[in-house]
Amino acid sequence: MGAALGLGAALACQAAAGALPPEVEAALARARLPQDALAVYVADAQDARAPARLAHRAQEGANPASVMKLVTTFAALDLLGPAYVWNTPVYVEGTVRGGSLRGNVYIQGQGDPKLVVERLWLLMRRLQAQGIEDIAGDIVLDRSAFDLPAHDPGRFDGEPLRPYNVAPDALLVNFQSVALTFVPDPAAALARIQYDPPLAGMQLQPSVPLAPAGTPCGDWRAGLRAQWADPARIAFQGAYPAACGERVWPVAYADPAALAARAVEGMWRALGGRLTGRVRDGQVPAGLQPAFAVASPALAEVVRDINKYSNNVMAQQVFLTLALQRGATATFEGARDVLAQWWRQRLGGQPLPQVDNGAGLSREARTTAQALGRMLQVAWDSPVMPELAASLPIAGVDGTLRRSKGRAGAAHLKTGSLRDVLAVAGYVHAASGRRYVLVALVNHPMAGAARPVLDALIDWTARDQ
């Protein structure tokens, strides 16, 4: 009799765990979404043996969008360590006399995800500190650490100039993007434009006229009527509203393979350096020793940028670095192999995610809510839990969750969104003092309407007494 009662109680608990909370059902109904569009897993973060508090379609495969970055970033923190850094070595070939180098400079990319404008400036200043003012040779960019297929930035969604569509690169300069800063000057009736990084060999329009007085800011990008087709020229046929104040517009460069060369030469010349030759691709000669190296921020800081702001190309750089640490050249296939081995060691009982490129910017990526939830439980019990948890957006406070209507400050959650996909995953601090893992994946043509559903789930999880 006791065994029968125990089985009945267990079945009742499972049924309750599979039933959606009434407020979540109501939010789905208002959004006109069926219950089978949603997969949810909620469980105690610290006790993986306890039954799930909520498990609805938790073992059904779904596209997690950028929530997949949690798999990549936890694996990287676990395998490489939070203090891991990328070094970009610089080699000087030849002799320096009177400030002139009779030879080449080699910059060897090693996958640094954050070789942004200020760090490129620092690299060039370090080169000048070698006593070099004039390079009577070439600057050679070695990108051979990554072996990647050809990339069409418009293939995913037809938006080739969106920074989220840029491809990884062993020598990724400023995310392969140009930041255009518009600064209005009403007295001169124009807005000045600053381009970062500085780009050599390009025609860059220095200013645009201001729109008529009283023009609202509105869709100011469309009003500029930008001309991007010519990779050697950036021009505008429209005007800029003074009401916008200072604004920054990041744009993926139209010829991504050429951006690093233009940026390296542009920064060298902006610092007063002279170059007799050109900037070109090549490889460091065997046996040449680096003159110095520029280190990236630590992995913990990089992971924070990736998860707080859902940076796709940084996630792919980290993903490929997993393979680079196992061999001379990184490939996506190699990165998937490393991650699969790690997953089997850490979560052997859970189905292996289809990570594709490691960033979630994919129609092929798949996982289950339960597998992600179990991974988050393993992460909570790991030494790198503080770094991973702190990297996640805080509901209603910052990152991609700053506009969330869920309980402000109660949840650290990675977000994900694609056409037909909306997702969150991470940790929720409940009123009871417990910490829960929450994974919610919506796959449906109307997924964009599901934000109130996810907010309702966050609130329900946080209200646990």
Descriptive overview:
- By secondary structure, the protein is an alpha+beta fold.
- The chain has three domains: 19-83 and 299-462, 3-Layer(aba) Sandwich (Beta-lactamase); 87-153 and 257-295, D-tyrosyl-trna(Tyr) Deacylase, Chain: A (3-Layer(bba) Sandwich), CATH 3.50.80.20; 177-254, no CATH class.
- Helices cover 30% and strands 22% of the residues.
- It has helices at residues 2-18, 22-30, 69-80, 117-128, 220-224, 256-270, 299-309, 312-324, 332-347, 369-380, 385-390, 451-462; strands at residues 38-44, 54-56, 87-92, 95-97, 100-102, 105-108, 134-135, 139-142, 177-185, 190-196, 203-204, 207-209, 226-227, 233-236, 247-252, 274-275, 279-281, 292-295, 411-418, 421-429, 435-443.
- It has a five-stranded antiparallel beta sheet with strand order 2-1-21-20-19, with helices on both faces. It has a five-stranded mixed beta sheet with strand order 17-8-6-3-18, covered by helices on one side.
- The two termini are 32 Å apart.
- Mean pLDDT is 93; it is low at 1-15.
Shape: globular
CATH superfamily of the largest domain: DD-peptidase/beta-lactamase superfamily
What's the gyration radius in Å?
Answer: 25 Å
Class per helix and strand makeup:
alpha+beta
CA-CA gap between termini = 32 Å
CATH architecture of the largest domain: 3-Layer(aba) Sandwich
CATH topology tier name of the largest domain: Beta-lactamase
Question: What key phrases describe this protein's structure?
Answer:
single chain; 465 residues; alpha+beta; Beta-lactamase; D-tyrosyl-trna(Tyr) Deacylase, Chain: A; 3 domains; 5-stranded antiparallel beta sheet; 5-stranded mixed beta sheet; 21 strands; disordered N terminus
